[in-house]
Amino acid sequence: MPKKIDHDARRRDIARAAISVIGEQGIDNTRLVDVARAAHATTGTITHYFEDKDAVLLAALDHVAQNILYMLRHGDEVDDLVDLAALILPIDAERLRDWRVWLSFFSRAIGDPALARINKAYYDEFRDGLAAIIRRRQSGRKLAASIEPDMTADAIISVLDGFCIRATLEREDWPPERQRKQLEAMLRPLLPAP
User: I want to staple 144 with a disulfide (CB 3.0 to 4.6 A). Which of 9, 116, 168, 192 is the partner?
Assistant: First the structure.
C-alpha cells in the first residue's frame, strides 16, 4: 500500500527549511540544494512542490508573516498590548531567524514591484489586525477612546520595525532586557488607559 503523504505539511516543512537557510546564510546565498538538504529532501522533491526558487522563498516569507498574524489573531488572549508586541522581539534564536528572513525580503522589495506589493499587503494585514485589537480594547474600556486605532497600529509597527532591525543586526548591543525596556519606553505613551 503506498505511503500517504500530507502535501500541505510537506510544503510547510520545505518553507521552514528555507527559513532556516535564509536565516543563516541570507537570501542571496540561499540555493535550492541548501533548502533540500535542510528539508531532508531532494531538489526534485522541492521542485515538485514549488515552481522555482522564488516560490520557495515566498513560501518562507509567508510562513514568517503567518506566525505574526497568528499572534494578532490571538491577541485578545494577551492582556497588555506591549506584551503582545513583545512576542515578536528577536530575543531568541527562532525570532531572530524570522527577523533575518523578514529583513532579507526588504532589500529585495526595493527593486521588485511584485514583492513590494506582497510586503505592503502583509503590513496592511498587520495594521488592520492591531487596529481591530485596539478598537476592542477601547470598547472594553481598557484603552483611551482618544486613540486613533489605524494610526496607532502603524506607529506600533514602525516602532517594532525600527528597533528590531537594530536588535537583529547589532545582537550584542540589544540583549532581551534592553529590547523589552525600549519597547516599553516607546509604546507605553501610545497606549494610555481611559
Answer: 192
Q: What is the pLDDT of residues 46-74, one digit of tens each?
A: 999 999 999 999 999 999 999 888 888 88
What grid cell was written down for 28? 542571496
Looking at the domain that runs over 74-194, which CATH code has it been given?
Answer: 1.10.357.10
Q: Can you spell out the DSSP letters for 8-60? A: HHHHHHHHHHHHHHHHHH-STT--HHHHHHHTTS-HHHHHHHSSSHHHHHHHH
CATH of 1-60, one of 3.50.50.60, 2.60.40.230, 3.40.50.2300, 1.10.10.60: 1.10.10.60
Kindly list the distances between the CA atom of residue 177 and the CA atoms of 15, 95, 154, in Å, as whole numbers in the listed order.
Answer: 31, 15, 24
3 state DSSP class of 109: helix
Maximum CA pair distance of the chain? 64
Domains of the chain, by residue range, sit at 1-60, 74-194
* Torsion of Cα atoms, 92 then 187 then 19 then 172, to 10°: -40
pTM for the model stands at 0.87
Roughly what angle, to the nearest 10 degrees, separates helices 53-73 and 7-25? 100
Residues with Cβ within 8 Å of 153's Cβ and at least 6 positions away in sequence, in order, are: 126, 127, 128, 129, 130, 131, 134
